Each structure stands twice: as structure tokens, then as C-alpha cells.
Amino acid sequence: MLPASDRPGKTRHAFPSERLPALRIATLLRAVSLRRAPLLAVALMAAGGCGSSGLLSGQGSAARDSIRIQLDGVQPSESRGELNQKGETVRFKVGYGRNGIACAGSTFEEGWTPLGTFRVNAVLSEDRFLMDSALVKESGKSEAYLRENLFRNMSSIDFKGDGETGEYGLGYISLEPVPATPQPFRFNTYDGTFRWYSFAIHGTNDASRVGQAVTGGCINVDRQVMADLLETVQLGDEVVISSESPCTP
């Protein structure tokens, strides 16, 4: 009789110098498989990490601070913002446009605050200046000129004609829609002063206006909130503005 390993239909052991019973072969193969499983799992996880382009493609929304704003069309005083900063959430009150809430993807109009996803394309204050290079070029001015004069010029304008200036408070954080849609924003001269016009989160010279629907369309926040935002916000940061109230197309 042939040995069990040599019988027709049976598997011959791979090692020529040693013949092992089938049960011992199965045990050996199982042990090898178990030893290799963790290595295979590590390899698969590494491959999956490299393939997840959402966080590594340059969008950076999860790696950076993000701002979420929820507008209340019925009770403007209930409108709130949240800054997710280094794992902590800071909540604050906001105000918005006097005409109401516009739907996402709409073209900005005076007095209407649009919903949607936005990215920060400029940060302006007395001591901080960040601006996309494309905007600097569009302005027709040098970056040095803009850094020195733009926010100061904008703050000097008396928009309401009541003798009050500084209506942007401590700072101005400009937002552009994502995806990009045609907007009327531009650099121009207002009452003889070179300035910039865009959709933004900005401060105020009257804290009572925060939490009301009274702005020209921008989001306003109080002095302390703006100070905190100016310390943390960077170009490219994401801002999402939403509402459970009806919006106007």
C-alpha cells in the first residue's frame, strides 16, 4: 500500500525531505495564515489611508478650523455660529441681512444673506492682512498698499450717513462661495475712498445689532468673537451657513 501522502487524490507535502500527515499540513498552513493576517491588515489600512483623497487633496477642511453658522429666519436673535477649534467648539451669536435669507448658489444682493458653503479668501484688520493672490492682482494695488490702507479705508466710511464710522468693528473676514458662482464683488471707490466690497463675517461698532436682521447682507459678530476669529482663521478655511427657515432663490 502506498503511504497516505502518495495515494491518488491526496496532496503530497511540498518539502521533498519530509512527508507530513495531512492534518499536520493543515495546522501548519493555518499558523502561517494567522501570522500573515495582521501584516495584510496593516497593508490594507495603509492603502486605504493613501486613497482617501478628501482630507489630503488640499481641501484641508477637517485639518483646519471650521465655522458653522445657523440662521433663524423667524427669530434672528436665535441665530448662532460655531467655531470648531482644536477639538473644542465655541458658540456665538450672529446677525444677518435686513432683507432675509437667500438660497445657496444665488448671486449676492444687498440686504440678503446667502446660504451655502464658503471659503475664506481674505482676512482684514488693523494688524492682520491675508488675501488670495488673485484678489491682490485684481485690486490693481500692491500688497503693501492693501495691507497698509484697505481695512482702514473701509472702516472710515460712514455707510448710514449718521456720522458713525468703524462699522466693521475689529475686522473683516471675506467669504467666496464654493463652488464659485458669479458675484458682484469688486474693488471700487466709495465716497472718494478706495475700498473693497464682498460678502463677509465682520465686527460691528454697535453690539446691539448682533442677533438682528439689520446688516447689508453680511454676518456680524460682537467684538470678542471677532477678536477670537482674527486669531484663528486662515485663508481657505471653510464656512458653512445654513438655516431651517425658508430661503429666497
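the 2nd protein, sequnce then structure:
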Amino acid sequence: MPPCPRCATSRVKKDGHVGETQRFRCRTCRRTFIMRTGTPFAGHRWPQEVIVTAVRWYLRFRLSAADVRDLLAERGVDVAARTILYWVQKFAPLLARAGRRAAVRPGARWWCDETYVRVGGTWAYLDRAIDERGQVVDVLLRRHRDLDSARAFFVLATYRRRATPEEVVTDKHPAYGRAIRDEVPGAVHIQSGLHRRCGPDTKPIERSHVPIKDRLRPMRGLQSIRTGQRTIEGVELARAVQRSHIMAPPDAGAGGTTGAYARARTAATTFAWLADSLRVAA
């Protein structure tokens, strides 16, 4: 029996059904609830599994919302493309937050850089950082490429990942030096470029821009900085799950197979596990 979401007691009994959903009644506070009560999925018509699957497809694969709509329709689920976009905007940042809690701790050396993305018909700047394993530390979408954006990125990354780098490799953009001195004063700043005969270069971070730009291309541009940040966080989460930068649940390896098939099943199981963790945190 699930615990009561209001008083957290385990004195719960079954109390009929709401449609096809099991209803429970708390013996202590006498209130009724279902499995989704008190979670971000409460109030939605479709089950949690349908919502998480649609969000995962949209974030993981190069699909438009209309493509996801058609795939769901083939499986008997009639959902509008606008509803799928609403689900992505609501649940992508929640899943990304849960993913950061389960993520592998970032390494000591960070590569930081920005890339261009289309937002509302104009170009905006996406600040990104990766560590020596290729794990994306954090992302921040901003309208301008300036000192305030660089500072905001390092404040956000160090706060959300609870980690501080020992070395930061960047290009020669002057804002990085000031931002690193102010926000991560203990880190060694290494200014480099795409080609360098010795020492670290910026190739790792430049290569890591390619998957995110490939995924954003079918979207034909983002609509705003706010919604773009939410979507990009979800896209980075899907890639982190695929590359095993998110600790998988204990039962993710069940099935007896290895290779691409096992990785695909593990990714789906991890997304479902992260969604279940929202139930506990709600």
C-alpha cells in the first residue's frame, strides 16, 4: 500500500476505483487518494507511463511534436501535438532536476564554451560545460554573450551540481577570465583554442555541441529563452541517460542482454525511475 500523501502514514486501505484507477483511503486522516495524488502527474488525463514515454521520445530522438503525436496515435493514444509540447515544458525541468540528483559527480576539469541557437527568430547563446568524461555539467541559455551571462553560468553550475572545478578550459573570450576569478576563484583558468600543439584544447566542448544542435534542428528554433532553457535541459538529460552519466536504477540491467538493446531498455527504465522519484519528492 502506498503511504498517505497528506499525513505520510502507512495506515491505508483500498477504497474502490476512480474509473480504472485504484483509490485508497487513509485510516488516520480519512482522506481518499490515488497513486498520482500529490505528484506533478495529478490532474492529467493520461497515465504517467504515457506522459513519460512521450516526453522521452521528444527529448531523445529527432522528432517533432507532430511525429510523437503520430507514434502515440498508432498505439491508441490520441494526444494533440500542443499537449505534448505542454508535457515537455512541464516535466522536462522536473526530470532534469531529478537527473542531477542521480548524476555522476562532475570531474575536476571543466571545458566551458557557448554556441549559437535560434530563439524567437534571432540568435541566442547557449553556455555549456563538460568534464573530462564528456559529462555535461550544466547549460544556460542567454540572450547576450557578456560578463553577466558568464557569471550566471558558473553560479548556476556550481550551485546545482554541488561541485567546483579545479581547472577550467575556455577559449579567449575575455568575460570568462573575470567570471572565473569572481565565481570560482580556486580554479586554474586555461585559455586555449581549437588547435594547440601541447596542452588542453577546446575540441572536447566543441564536439559536444554537435548532438544538441542536431536535436534542436527539427524543432525549427525555440520560441523564448524560458521555454528554450526547459527544453534544452531535458535534451541534455536524455543524452546523459543514454551515455550512462545518470546512475541507473538497480533493476535496469534485468533481461539478460547486452549492447544496444540493453542500453535502450536501460534508458527507458531510468526515465521511468526518475519520474517515480518525483512522486517521492512531491
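Residues 1-35 form one domain. The two ends are 18 Å apart (CA to CA).
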